[in-house]
Design brief:
- The protein is mostly beta strands.
- The protein contains one helix and 31 strands.
- A hairpin with a 3-residue loop joins β18 and β19.
- It is globular and about 45 Å long.
Length: about 400
């Protein structure tokens, strides 16, 4: 059924059951698209009506990662092309990617390590297509990993520390399948390492491990997926530059890896090579996301909590003091998503407003300036922002808007 309807266009207003949720803006007009539900949205494979969505970008652009056909930095949002059929996106430090509702994957930015996956090593300042039938995508500095609709995992780009999971350190400029499994559900990238969850709820990792970010109780690199423990209750995950974070189905939060700035949130600055629980709460309910050395999560009550390095105000509590335990950002109970980046952060509310804070040397906060902020500032006045993309080393923003 999924392949029969995927990519189709529906002009009628969809029934209530298909209305956008999770901060998708609430639009109920215009052309809607039939697409497979992505794994990030719950692991289902049946079709779903989604509203029209545009891709917008801003910030650093030296390799064309903003998709504007140039290498000019932008300090205010600019649209990537004119299409409205985007369903998922990702942003590495030097590259960007997005998936359309028809399952095609598009990449742009630095091509030197083959991270764009188009068979070349040339930079592209406008999107180029990379295959079909993609469900989710994530990126590192110059590497890309993506899951297809059949549950297979693929990787390409830089691989000097085995971060592609292919049991070697060979660079690839086109997608290569990671093993033969069809049970990959979610994947997240740090700096030269990867964590992933399978459909059975098990947690896996591979790549660089100098600070224990692979969760194996050691600091040994591995170029093939290795399981973290034996649990089958992992549901969400996110990676910092050298740290890893995951949420279980019981709502508990866990972290491991580098902790020099308190970025693990356990009240210490001690590195951990195995998962440790952050506090005792069972109310961590949304996607966990980390910046370079800081992290944030939205709780089930809609409050936003962040911690870690704060030299540029990226924690968002109005100070520049490092935090080794979670602190609440403001008093809002309407946060829906958080995304960390290199010294900066972004957040979405259920009302579709977009907020940013932290370092702003490249205009990555979207304020039309290069002023840094230690508390959230709204990006424009729109209420139709729906999804955030980024990576711990990113200095540019890639955000989806519902139209």
């Amino acid at each position: 059924m999924g392949s029969r309807f995927k990519g189709g266009v529906v002009s009628a207003t969809p029934p209530t059951i298909n209305s956008p949720t999770d901060g998708e803006g609430g639009s109920t007009s215009g052309v809607w698209y039939m697409t497979d539900v992505t794994q990030e949205e719950g692991g289902s494979t049946w079709p779903k009506l989604v509203p029209p969505r545009e891709q917008w970008a801003w910030g650093r652009n030296q390799n064309g990662q903003l998709g504007q056909g140039d290498t000019t930095d932008y300090s205010s949002p600019v649209q990537v092309g004119e299409l409205t059929n985007w369903k998922a996106s990702a942003g590495g430090q030097y590259i960007s990617a997005a998936i359309k509702t028809d399952g095609t994957l598009w990449t742009w930015g630095a091509g030197a390590s083959g991270g764009l996956g188009d068979g070349t090593t040339a930079n592209k300042s406008s999107p180029v297509q990379v295959g079909t039938d993609w469900a989710t995508v994530t990126q590192m500095r110059n590497s890309t990993l993506a899951i297809k609709t059949n549950g297979t995992l693929w990787a390409w780009g830089a691989n000097g520390l085995g971060q592609l999971g292919l049991n070697n350190t060979t660079y690839y400029s086109s997608p290569v399948q990671v093993g033969a499994l069809t049970t990959w559900l979610k994947v997240s990238c740090g700096l030269y390492f990867v964590t992933a969850i399978k459909t059975d709820g098990t947690l896996w990792a591979w790549g660089k491990n100098t600070q224990g970010q692979l969760g194996q109780g050691n600091t040994t690199h591995t170029s093939s997926p290795v399981q973290i423990g034996a649990l089958t209750t992992w549901s969400q995950l996110g990676d910092g530059t050298q740290s890893s974070f995951a949420i279980k189905t019981d709502g508990t939060l866990w972290a491991w890896g580098r902790n020099n700035y308190g970025q693990l949130g356990d009240g210490s600055t001690t590195d951990r090579s195995s998962p440790v629980q952050i506090g005792s709460l069972t109310t961590w309910g949304q996607l966990v996301s980390a910046g370079q050395y800081h992290c944030g999560v939205v709780k089930t009550d809609g409050t936003l909590w962040t911690w870690g390095r704060n030299n540029y105000g990226q924690v968002g509590d109005g100070s520049t003091t490092n935090r080794s335990s979670p602190v609440q950002i403001g008093s809002l109970t309407t946060w829906s998503r958080f995304r960390g980046a290199k010294h900066s952060s972004m957040g979405l509310t259920t009302g579709g407003t977009l907020w940013a804070w932290g370092y702003n040397n490249r205009g990555q906060l979207g304020q039309g300036n290069t002023t840094s902020y230690s508390s959230p500032v709204q990006v424009g006045a729109l209420t139709t922002w729906s999804k955030l993309a980024g990576q711990p080393e990113s200095e540019h923003a890639l955000v989806t808007k519902t139209v």
